[in-house]
Amino acid sequence: MLDATARLLETKGFAALTTNHVAELAGVSIGSLYEYFPDKETLVAELARRAIREILVEVGDGLAEAVQLGGEQGLRRGIGLLFDAVERRRGLVRELWQLPYLATLDEFKQLPKVTVAITQKLSPAFAKRRALRNLEAVSWLLTVMVGNAVVHGAAARPRSLSRKDVEDTLAGMLGLLLLPTR
Do 117 and 167 have their domain in common? Predict the structure, then answer.
């Protein structure tokens, strides 16, 4: 049912998505769908949770390499991992990112903590920067800024910009904030 929801969300968008369409595509009765998901919002919320978990696993799998590289190379590798994970789900992520209730999901609320943990691994100097005293605010802002940059950069960037251009620019900007000054 979640796979059917993902396919329909990518092709029709949230507004046109119905539980009847999902049940039909999934090959289940509408009653069976309602046993698990009382409405389309619950169904899409579970799909969003799954997508967030999958992306975090993919990024986490490559994070050891990024940490080992360290510095700007590690930062660039981490950004590349995020772009890869989002690009694999381009249409789905573009639709999910627009949902007003996305920010209410526990998995989404955990992203700032994940962001600060990753950032601290990639840049041990990060936590020591005087301008960054409120790590909760910094991690939330990084999540919002990087999340939007990656989602829009991977799923909806203008044709005039290459992925490399967007990644390089994002890495340079984050490097100024996160990496030790020379």
Answer: yes
